[in-house]
C-alpha cells in the first residue's frame, strides 16, 4: 500500500487547443477536469495499476469537495484534512505541437492547527504502508522544514519516504535521509547550484544529493530519460516515444511506477521509465494503466552515457 501526501492539491482543468494566440479567442478541441497535485497523481497512477493507495491531503471549499469525489471515483481512498481555505484551481493549455502552458494558483494558507492535523493524518495512515510519497510544493503556512519534520516522524515510525519537491524544502529534508528523492533536471540543477548540460552532469549532481543525505536519487531528464543513483550502483533508462501529447504528471507517473515495482534497482527504474513514457502519450494529466505501458520500448543499462548532451539542458 502506498500513502501519498499532497500539501497543496488542486483541481486541474486541461484544455487542448490547436495553438495559443495571445489576445485572441482560442477554441478548445478537448477539455478535462482532474484532481491535481503531484502526490494525487502518484495515487492515481498507483490505483490505475490496481494497487491500494491512500491520498492524504488538505481540502476546502467546492473545489476540494470535487477533488475528493473525483479521487473516490477512481478507486482511491481519501484521508482529507478539512481546511478553512478553498483548494486551488489550476489551468493547463496543451497545444497540438506538444507545447504546454500552465497557470498554477498559489493555493490557500494553512493555519498552525491545520498543519498539525495534516501531520497527524499522515501518522494515522502510516501503519502498513510500503511507502509514503511526499510530493509537490508547500502551501502558505507550511515552513520549508515541514517535509523534513514529516520525514523524521515517518522514519521514527518505521516507514520509507519518497520525496518529490524542490528548493529549500528539498534541501532541508535531505538532512533526514529520505529513502528516495525524485527531482527533474531543473530541480536537480537548482539543488546543486549549477547548470546541467550532459547526462554525466546529472549523475554528478545526483551523487551530491546522496552526499547531503538522500539514500537514492531517481532523476527525470525529460526526453533524455531517467537516472537512478544509489549506494549499490547507477543506472540509465530511456524509452522510445513517437509522439508527445501532454507531459503533465509524467514525472508523477514515473515515481508511481518506481514505487509500485519495489522502489529499488534497475527493475524499478525500468518501471518508472515505462510509466513516464506512457503518461506523455495520454491527454491532460491522465495516468497510465497497465495496458498503456510498452515495456519493450524501454532500455536500462549500467553503462551510463555520461558524455551525452541533454536535449533540454537544465539552466
Automatic annotation (TrEMBL):
EC number assigned by the record: 2.7.1.56
Keyword match Transferase: yes
Keywords: ATP-binding, Kinase, Nucleotide-binding, Transferase
GO MF term list: 1-phosphofructokinase activity
Keyword set includes Flavoprotein: no
Pfam entry (one): PfkB
Family (UniProt): Belongs to the carbohydrate kinase PfkB family.
PANTHER family given in the database record: 1-PHOSPHOFRUCTOKINASE, 1-PHOSPHOFRUCTOKINASE-RELATED
Protein name: 1-phosphofructokinase
This protein's encoding gene: pfkB
Amino acid at each position: 500500500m502506498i500513502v501519498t501526501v499532497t500539501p497543496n492539491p488542486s483541481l486541474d482543468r486541461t484544455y487542448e487547443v490547436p495553438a495559443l494566440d495571445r489576445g485572441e479567442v482560442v477554441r478548445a478541441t478537448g477539455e478535462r477536469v482532474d484532481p491535481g497535485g503531484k502526490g494525487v497523481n502518484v495515487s492515481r497512477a498507483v490505483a490505475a495499476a490496481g494497487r491500494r493507495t491512500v491520498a492524504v491531503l488538505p481540502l476546502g471549499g467546492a473545489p476540494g469537495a470535487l477533488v475528493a469525489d473525483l479521487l473516490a471515483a477512481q478507486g482511491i481512498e481519501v484521508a482529507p484534512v478539512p481546511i478553512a481555505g478553498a483548494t486551488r484551481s489550476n489551468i493547463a493549455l496543451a497545444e497540438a505541437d506538444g507545447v504546454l502552458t500552465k497557470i498554477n494558483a498559489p493555493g490557500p494558507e494553512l493555519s498552525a492547527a491545520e498543519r498539525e492535523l495534516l501531520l497527524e493524518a499522515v501518522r494515522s495512515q502510516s501503519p502498513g504502508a510500503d511507502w509514503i510519497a511526499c510530493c509537490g510544493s508547500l502551501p502558505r503556512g507550511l515552513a520549508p522544514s515541514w517535509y523534513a519534520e514529516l520525514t523524521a516522524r515517518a522514519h521514527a515510525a518505521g516507514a520509507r519516504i519518497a520525496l518529490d519537491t524542490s528548493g529549500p524544502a528539498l534541501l532541508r529534508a535531505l538532512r533526514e535521509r529520505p529513502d528516495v528523492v525524485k527531482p527533474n533536471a531543473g530541480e536537480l540543477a537548482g539543488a546543486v547550484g549549477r547548470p546541467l548540460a550532459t547526462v554525466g552532469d546529472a549523475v554528478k549532481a545526483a551523487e551530491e544529493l546522496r552526499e547531503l543525505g538522500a539514500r537514492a536519487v531517481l532523476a527525470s531528464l525529460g526526453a533524455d530519460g531517467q537516472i537512478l543513483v544509489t549506494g549499490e550502483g547507477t543506472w540509465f533508462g530511456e524509452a522510445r516515444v513517437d509522439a508527445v501529447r501532454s507531459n503533465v504528471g509524467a514525472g508523477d507517473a514515473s515515481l508511481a511506477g518506481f514505487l509500485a515495482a519495489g522502489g529499488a534497482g534497475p527493475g524499478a527504474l525500468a518501471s518508472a521509465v515505462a510509466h513516464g513514457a506512457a503518461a506523455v502519450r495520454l491527454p491532460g494529466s491522465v495516468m497510465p494503466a497497465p495496458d498503456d505501458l510498452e515495456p519493450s520500448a524501454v532500455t536500462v543499462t549500467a553503462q551510463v552515457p555520461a558524455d551525452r548532451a541533454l536535449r533540454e539542458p537544465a539552466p
